[in-house]
Amino acid sequence: MAHKSDLIATDIQGYLKAHEHKGLLRFITCGSVDDGKSTLIGRLLYESKLVFEDQLAALEADSKKVGTQGGELDFALLVDGLAAEREQGITIDVAYRFFSTDRRKFIVADTPGHEQYTRNMVTGASTADVAVILIDARKGVLTQTRRHSYIVSLLGIKHVVLAINKMDLVGFSKEIFDAIVQEYRDFSEQVGLEHVTAIPLSALKGDNMLERSARTPWYDGPTLMSYLETVEIEDDLQAKPFRLPVQWVNRPNQNFRGFAGTIASGVVRVGDAIRALPSGRQSRVARIVTYDGDLDEAVAGQSVTLTLTDEIDVSRGDVLAAAESPPAVADQFQSTIVWMHEEPMLPGRPYLLKMETRTVTGSITAPKYKVNVNTLEHLAAKQLELNEIGVCNISLDRPVAFDPYVDNREMGGFILIDKLSNDTVGAGLLSFALRRAENIHWQALDVNKQARSALKGQRACVLWFTGLSGAGKSTVANLVEKRLHALGRHTYTLDGDNVRHGLNKDLGFTDADRVENIRRVAEVSKLMVDAGLIVLVSFISPFRSERRLARELMDEGEFFEVFVDTPLHEAEKRDPKGLYKKARRGELKNFTGIDSPYEPPEHPEIHLRTALVSPEQAAEEILSKLRDAGMLYVPDDLSGL
Q1: Known catalytic residues?
Q2: What is the mean pLDDT of residues 436-450?
């Protein structure tokens, strides 16, 4: 809600105009569990007369019912919105509140204190200008204090309020306050936090919240509210080079073509030279169009449509930038990743990477290291678990325009999305493009896949056999290859067991190793298809994500997923290698179907129910499918290959 002003009753238009032109400050509250974050925000709202009467009545009722202050007002309940939060007296979700004073508008994010909700804290901090880090005066600097301070620094928040709360419980001791401040400053210097303002508080009692407290005569700094109202946030976005990620190509008719989006940084004027990335084509700004009419110039934060003097190819996800200072373009980066999902990050697995208005596919290498945020130590890691932070390389399927995160938060930040569930699984900060990306180019060859396929009298493709161990994948694949060989077709079989004797000899059976196993085989399959072969791949390949990765490496119509569908009890009954018996005895870990999941195909090209058909019948069904798809003969028009 808005601050109560006398203008509301006497001059509502004047009030709205004054309110419209106030500056906006985004800040977060964070710290360890039960440091008083929600109480602090609730007290700010209450003391500033920013609570409606019905909210106050509800607060009084809730304080008596579930409050923690013996029936007195429990200000934390103003922001602890989830039932679980009220019952446990903790913050779980990120609670956002808008309020204003005569001097400024505010959006505050109350972020969780528990370590398992660190991902929520990252979400709240990603757009904040100021961080209010609370410390319980009785406990001092804790592990979670250091964790949140490191994340605040990582996300580029430059201004920190060290809110030393519950001073009333330590007798407003200056000695305790000074000791905590010194300990925190020693740590903050290590993580690069330079602008730290320490304030002694009692959020529950209101000391130094809005007015100076008589109980801290030794403190001569600002109150919390006066700090928030006056802290100078460097509005350096306008000073940065112009960037506009294109959100929409606006083409209402043949006479108008504009590129709409929100300006991420800088200033643009009519007549300015701009460059479209990643294509690099240049033009000039013809018009700056808005709903309220054309502008001569627009600045960071404004949503506009630009028209250009030249007809150049620009699509959603491209970036319009100042011609003299464009962003870099690359498809391989070093980045810092905060993992935000219960399922671990698996190196090599393809994820969607969303950066501004562009979404691409990317894969992550094994972390170079993960950071112990309590000690800042760099630790070896093969993957990232929930709430862990690591430095990794990322490879994308196409080049993107970017600025390093330290230079431009808007152009250097991204999120990672699981392709199947659409869950947001990670957040990342781009550091720099890898130099090796500049040195690697695709070499054009005169003899291509079409020519190699035509020479062999066939269309190249992949038959990807997937199913449980003992389902009959290798048996059916062997029969299919024998029949193709008899027909004079050129084939090769990649079998799961055989490949692990050489190419994948170094891999085990953890989820991470399974992902890498399939990634390597998919890349080899792609090369064999390029050679014009019909490739038979017989792997359990239990995860849909990796099978999708293999499919996406091939051209349309080249990938046939063959689901060798055998019930677990039937596969276990066959057990030709005795693996199920070992797994049941606990001698074989991470065995698919027993203690590791198998994700069956949802829409396979070929579905073989081997409990109902013989291997020979299954092989004939596959050959029939290949004939129907035109894979076993060369059409008269070889250009269509």
Answers
A1: 541
A2: 71
